Amino acid sequence: MTTGSVVLIDPQSYISQQIQKLVIENINFFCVESTADAKNLLSRQPCSVGLVILDPSLKDSLEEVESLVVATSKTEWIALVAPAFMEMAHVRSFVANAFYDYHTLPVDLQRLLMTIGHACGIAHLRLSLAKSKKENADPGHFGIHGNSAIMQTFFQRLDKVINADLAVLIGGETGTGKELVAQAIHGHSRRSKGPFVAVNCGAVPQNLIQSELFGHERGAFTGAQQRKIGSIEAANGGVLFLDEIGDLPLNLQANLLRVLQERTITRLGSTQPVPVDFRIIAATHVDLQQAIQNGSFREDLYYRLSVIQLDLPPLRSRDGDVPLLAEVIFKRLSANNPHCRANGFTSQALRVMSTYRWPGNVRELINRIHRAVILCEGKLIGVSDLGLDAYVDIPEAKTLEDARASLDRSILEISLRNNGNNVSRAARQLGVSRVTFYRMMNKHNIAATH
């Protein structure tokens, strides 16, 4: 991208001729008459800055201008507004939320050129930052992100589990990402080309769960109009993921145990066994040992399922991971929402997210950011966009010092990651000396890799 390229939408050539007469070092101007022309130009020639005149001569509706501004997020837009237009509340709101800056008509060209220069600088800075983030982005571990010590330990165990082809029992609170782990195991194992079949044992009505798992023959019961292949048979050659295994009725626990022992299934209404070859991964948010004591879960099935156990930590235990996860989730959700105006989070939002307890874990984090991506009207997602206003002044760590330490550590780790673990660049980004940065790393037990 040429950081000094500027596009001007000027239907009546109101200021085009004046601007083109000016000789401005390193800035090239492109003048067009409509948003459609601008969109066509920007598809061929990206520009750092865009100018659009908002007055009665405008050929396009404000909605069309907004659509262009939203679709060209890498361009910093400046509005040149007729005074009468600025009297309208909806225009003021539009300008405030969608534009880098604005000038009223008639414009002072020298002041406008200063604004253009500043906007070019911001565009260049954003481009450099985006490039740095792309080069040093955390690729995740099989699509699972986390830099905390507890997640690094989890990843080490996960690496050993993937190709073992043994039964896996994943424990963890609701919303921690148990199905994502199961998908990672499937996707990177020797069974990756086989099917991944997921069944939530707690979501299927008890009168249907047997048919769901084992299938049935035509006429096996009232309403069975045709043969149904069950989930176990459908997983042949791949992975069967049984979520909320603790909710499986006792009689079906016995049936599942038999399948795991004999490696055959018998459809409801049939006497013919069908051989099956699959890897089973089960997940639960309840204590199955306690369920065994209560008589609601079979001990022999438990031992069949828990050959390897993985325990996903709750988000509140993943020290420093929230800012990283928030960034990853925001990028994914905003990329799928062309109307998203935000390009990040306010420092207050990051601080509150880092100290909030996240009872719904990663699922709650995803839902709150999804809501913010849809509702946020500014450039940065704030606390209110996340629905966390009530937690602004409530420190959730054990002490205020703990909360500060956690936030400081997160800032250091993010700065290092965005600068390729180069301490000198990270220190410059934060405006501190290398000595101070190293001292802070030592204080927060962050290892130097360069």
Automatic annotation (TrEMBL):
Superkingdom field: Bacteria
GO BP term, example: regulation of DNA-templated transcription
Presence of the UniProt keyword Transcription in the record: yes
SMART domains the record matches: AAA
Cited Gene3D superfamilies: 1.10.8.60, Homeodomain-like, P-loop containing nucleotide triphosphate hydrolases
Residue ranges annotated for the Sigma-54 factor interaction domain, each copy included: 144-374
Name of this protein: Sigma-54 factor interaction domain-containing protein
